[in-house]
Amino acid sequence: MLLGRVLDDSYDPVVRRNLTLVTVARLSTNSAFRYVIPFLSVLARGLDVSISQIGVVLTISTLTGLLGSPIGRVIDRGSHRVLMVYSLAGIAIGAAIAAFAPGVWLFGVGLVILGVSKLVFDMSLTGWVAEYVPPQGRGRVFGLIEMSWAAGLFIGVTLLGLITALWSWRWAYATAAATLFAVAVVTYVRLPPDRRRFSRTDADAISVPVRARPTARGWQFVIAMGFMLLSIQMLIAVLGPWLQDDHGFTSAGLTVVTFVMGVFELGSSFAAVRLTDIWGGWRSVMRGGSLLIPASVLFTVSHDSLWLGLLAFALITLGFEYCIISSFSVATTLVAGAPAAGLGLMFTFNTAGMAGGTLLGTWLYDHHGAGVAVAPVIASSTISVVLLALGVSSQDHPAAADAPQART
User: Fold this and answer.
1) Digit-coded pLDDT (tens) for 290-347
2) CB-based burial of residue 205 (10 Å sphere; 0-12 exposed, 13-18 middle, 19+ buried)?
3) In angstroms, rounded to a whole number, what is the distance separating the alpha carbons of residues 159 and 372?
4) I want to staple 72 with a disulfide (CB 3.0 to 4.6 A). Which of 48, 266, 271, 340 is the partner?
């Protein structure tokens, strides 16, 4: 009930009673998922490969997100509670494989299993929220849950980083696996069976086929998010190697930076709780993403300075976290009556952007350094913001072509 106290009585009691549980569950998944990027150099050295080589493995695992759209349609027909439990166990198995992998390719298999399972968990959790919360109230709930993204960094990844500094990265993954198995058991015991209320109304069940598709503005939104994820993935792929190679940071130093960035993310999470439902999803996503443009310019021209570079990444963290949290409330409305399908479609485009960002960012860093690796972000983030601005400008004047479409 701790987080549930933030919600008033208009929210379903099931949500208020279990909001803390599902947020802790997501914190544990985010910790295991986010560990790899800040410690990319540590992992590469431990597996005796280059940054670009482990970047290829990470890209392959990231591409599992392309399954988001078909998986989302399956999730909308299944039990969100059961799928959350199974996917938590799957993330634990992936982390365990990574912990004991003798080489980079088996390590990659662990990341693939972890990535697919996390995709299922995230969409199942979003579908669970959509069961009980109407669209106009989801921004607040997602903002509270998405504090786990920040907490996964400054609590979860920080703890895993300390384990890495004291022992090794293998112990970090093993600890994550054990924690996730425990969380899966608690979730199975505590979370009640599904009871659909808002994810599919009676009218939806009659008039909207299962294969309903987004409107033109919906496609515009997911394309914009793809460019946004391309931008952020290039940035975060550069952060750890830049700190270690250019400024001599150790694993302990990376842990401190990770903690501070997590604090900034938490600040954006609080802002999303207060502002996303007021400003609206599209406008919130656009405003958050807009910060990436000046921040990437700042880093490109001042990456030789540690403090200016860190300031740039602080701005990037603030903007992107607010952007991505706000995007969930929009994504659940992209496909009529099928919130997980809409989220899955956004994840598919996000994945394409992340995969491209990982490959391009690590390759440019290996061959040209941090400044050149970040420069393309100025263009990609600008494209994303322009697409979002066009969507905001047309929000109050929907075209006839934007009427819901369906295919059988």
Assistant:
1) 999 999 999 989 888 899 989 998 898 889 888 888 888 788 777 766 666 777 788 7
2) exposed
3) 32
4) 340
Give the Cα separation of 169 and 99 in Å (integer).
8
- Domain regions of the chain by residue span: 11-193+213-395
Structure tokens at 52: 């670009």
* Domain 11-193+213-395 homologous superfamily, CATH: MFS general substrate transporter like domains (1.20.1250.20)
Residue type, 328: F
Asked if the model's pLDDT at residue 289 lies above 70, the reply is yes
Quickly state the pLDDT bin for 396 (edges 50, 70, 90).
Answer: low
3-state SS assignment for residue 233? helix
Which residue is it, tokens 């759209």?
69
Whole-number Cα distances in Å, 407 to 73, 208, 337: 14, 10, 14
d(CA 121, CA 8): 26
Looking at the DSSP assignment, which residues form a beta bridge with residue 212?
406
Q: In this structure, what token pair is assigned to residue 392?
A: 């905001």
Length of the chain: 408
> For 169-181, b where at least 16 C-beta lie within 10 A, e where not — what string?
bbebbbbbbebbb
β-partners of residue 406 are 212
Q: How many other C-beta atoms can be found within 10 angstroms of the C-beta atom of residue 344?
A: 30
Q: What is the pLDDT of residues 7-44, one digit of tens each?
A: 667 676 777 777 888 888 988 998 888 888 778 778 88
The one-letter code for the residue type at 23 is T
Using alpha carbons only, give the angle 132, 138, 140 rounded to the nearest 5 degrees: 120
Query: Angle at the Cα of 64 (from 364 to 251), degrees rounded to 5?
Result: 50
- The greatest distance separating any two alpha carbons of the chain, rounded to the nearest whole angstrom, comes to 62
Q: If you ran DSSP here, which 8-state letter would residue 137 be given?
A: G
